[in-house]
Amino acid sequence: MNAAWVVVADTSRARIFSAENAFSPLVEIQTLDHPEARLHPGDLVSDRAGRDRSPGSRSHDIGHMEETKRDEAARFASEVCATLESGRTLGHFNKLHVIAAPSFLGLLRKQQPHPLQKIVATEISKNLTTKDIETIRKNLPDRL
User: Fold this and answer.
1) Predicted TM-score (pTM) of this structure
2) Confidence (pLDDT) at 44
3) Whole domain around residue 113: which residue ranges?
4) Bridge partners for 99 per DSSP
5) CA-CA distance, 98 to 40, in Å (whole number)?
6) Number of domains comprising the chain
7) Is 144 inside a domain boundary?
């Protein structure tokens, strides 16, 4: 088996493609959506953040809204990597190419199990999740 998988991801969407051999066209086989990443940070927390009433005319929120967004992104990265690891263990592919938004690529690296890391052939730091298959293929090596 010489199949390769390509994952194109950002914090809210991951598209998984397969290529049967090194020169085969890409075929989209799965899409994972994480709509929570598109929500405003305030919509992700159930309670309002505390308020700091410092001396002066202004107050500001004390909260973890950005932290909540990062947690959601990390949760999705874990889901994407679990899907990829499942495909690897089932023998669906033996080479992986990763194209991910710069902010998401690091999260994917942290979540990848070691056996999956070993078969990563290409990492590209770009957000191509909304691009067509031809554009995605042009960003990959000629030989998958």
Assistant:
1) 0.80
2) 46
3) 4-138
4) 8, 124
5) 27
6) 1
7) no
Q: How many Cα atoms within 13 Å fall on the side-chain side of residue 132?
A: 1
Rounded to an integer, what distance in angstroms lies between the CA atom of residue 19 and that of residue 14? Answer: 17
* CATH number, position 61: 3.30.420.60
Q: How confident is the model at residue 9 (pLDDT cuts 50, 70, 90)?
A: very high
pLDDT, tens digit (0-9, with 9 covering 90-100), for 36-65: 766 555 544 555 555 545 555 554 454 556
- Interatomic CA distance for residues 76 and 134, integer angstroms: 26
Structure token digits, residue 89: 């263990």
- Name beta bridge partners: 32: 14
- Mean pLDDT score across all residues of the chain: 86
Lookup: tokens for 122: 């290409």
Structure tokens at 93: 């592919």
Answer yes or no: are the C-beta atoms of 16 and 7 closer than 8 Å.
Answer: yes
Strand 27-33: give its sheet, edge to edge: 27-33, 13-19, 4-9, 95-100, 120-125
Residue 44 lies in a domain: yes
Distances (CA, A) of 96 to 13, 54, 87: 18, 52, 11
